[in-house]
Amino acid sequence: MFELKTIALFIVTAIAEIVGCYLPYLWLTQNKSPLLLIPAAVSLALFAWLLSLHPVAAGRVYAAYGGVYIFVAIFWLWLVDGIKPTYWDLLGAGVALIGMAIIMFSPRSA
């Protein structure tokens, strides 16, 4: 159960970070409203808060979170940008998730 909660929290965290970065990207590259910066800032604050909810060392959380971020970003590419991931995109995301699992769920003595 701990593992599922951790992965779900990482996924929500990644979505908050991607939204927080995607909205300014829309403003800068597609001439969208600068008002998008307001929800972007809120989303990035939510991202930082969500990272603080993990009960393990911050460095380990940040390292493992990177793997989930890669996975979520590939699906963002597909669902939001409409670009179907290649086999290699999916393989790379899978490798990143395996790395996250090793970092977060391996046995520890302390």
Overall radius of gyration: 15 Å
Q: Beta-strand level of the residues, as a percent range? A: under 5%
The end-to-end distance, rounded to whole angstroms, is 21 Å
Structural class: mainly alpha
Number of strands: 0
Instruction: Profile the largest sheet.
Output: none
Mean pLDDT: 91
By DSSP (H or I, 4+ residues per run), the number of helices equals 4
- Basic shape: flat
Write a concise synopsis of the structure shown.
The protein has 110 residues and is mainly alpha-helical. It is built from four helices and no strands. Helix 3 (58-79) runs antiparallel to helix 4 (87-105).
Task: Provide a descriptive summary of the structure in words.
The chain has 110 residues and is an all-alpha fold. The protein has one domain (2-105). It is built from four helices and no strands. The chain has helices at residues 2-30, 37-51, 58-79, 87-105.
Itemize the secondary structure elements and their pairings.
Layout: H1 2-30, H2 37-51, H3 58-79, H4 87-105
Helix pairs in contact: 1-2, 1-3, 3-4
Which key terms come to mind for this protein?
110 residues; mainly alpha
